[in-house]
Amino acid sequence: MTDPASPLSPPTISAVVIGRNEGARLLACLTSLNPQVRRLIYVDSGSSDGSAEAARAMGVEVVDLDMSLPFTAARARNAGLEKLAQEEGLVQLVDGDCEVDANWIPQAAAFLQQHPEVAVVCGRRRERFPEASIYNSLCDAEWNTPIGEAKACGGDALMRLDALREVSGYRADLIAGEEPEMCLRLRRKGWKIWRIDAEMTLHDAQMTRFAQWWKRSRRAGYAFAQGAALHGAPPERHWVAETRRALLWGGVLPLAVFLSAVVITPWMLLGVMIYPLQLLRLTSRMGLQPAWFSMLGKFAECTGVVEFAWNRLRGKNRSILEYK
Known about the structure:
CATH architecture of the largest domain: Alpha-Beta Complex
Helix content: 40-55%
CATH superfamily of the largest domain: Spore Coat Polysaccharide Biosynthesis Protein SpsA, Chain A
Structural class: alpha/beta
Distance between the termini: 43 Å
Largest sheet: 9 strands, mixed
CATH topology of the largest domain: Spore Coat Polysaccharide Biosynthesis Protein SpsA, Chain A
Number of helices: 11
C-alpha cells in the first residue's frame, strides 16, 4: 500500500453513468461530470426519449445495453466498467437521475489517496425536491447515513478500479441491493467502505404517489430476501434481520391475530394493539410520519420477501421492479 507521507500523483478518474429515459436529468448529470473526469461513459438501457443520442452529441462514450437479456442496474454498471478494462485509477459510479456536486470528486479522490485501505467512498446524496412529497422526504432521510466507516454505499460512489476487478464487479442478477452485496464481498477481501462528510449528489426520485412508494418498498423486501439467501450465514448475516422484520410485522403477526380470532375467540383481535404500541415506540425515535411509513412499509416488504421465496422455489428470478 502507498505510504500516506509520500508524494502522491493525481489519480486517473473516469465515470460510469447508467440510465433510461432520464431526459433533462441525464444531461444535467453528464454536464456535472464532464469537467471532473477523463473518460465519461453512459450506459443506456433502451431509452426511447433520445437520451443516448443526446449523450453522444455531448461527446460522451455511450454503451447501448443489450436489452434482449433481463435488465438490472447491476448489469448496466458492469457494462460500463467493461469499457474501462484497460484503465487504472478511480471510477465514479452515478445514477442518471443525479447531479454530481462540483467539489465532490476532488474531495473523494483525495480521501482515497490518503487512505489506501479504502475501496469505496461516498458522501451525502440529497433529494432535489424533498418538499415535493412525503415520499421524496423519506428518501432524503434514507440517504443521510452516518459519517465514517460503513458496511455499504449506494448507487453513487467513487471506487478503485482494481478493487472492483478483485471482486468481479456487481452481481448482475440482483434486481436491487447490488451495492451492499458488492461491498460485502469487498470487505471480505479486506477493503473498507467509507462515508465522508461532503456533498456528493442531488437525486430526483420523482416519487409523488403512494403506489410508487409501495412498489419501491416491495422491491426492498425482495432485495432483503435475495441478499439473505446469498449471504445470510454468519458472520455477515446479510439482511437477515431486515427480512425477518418484514415477515414478522407484515405477515406473521397479522395472520396470527386473524387465525387466533377465528379459532379461539374474537377477543384475540385485540392483538392488533401491538401495532399502535410499535408506532408509539418508533415515533419517539424518528417522528410520527417516518414511523408510520416504516410500519406500513413492512407490509410491502413482506410481499417482496414472499415473492422472492415463491420465485426461488420455482427456480426463477423476477425482472427489475421500477417505481418511476
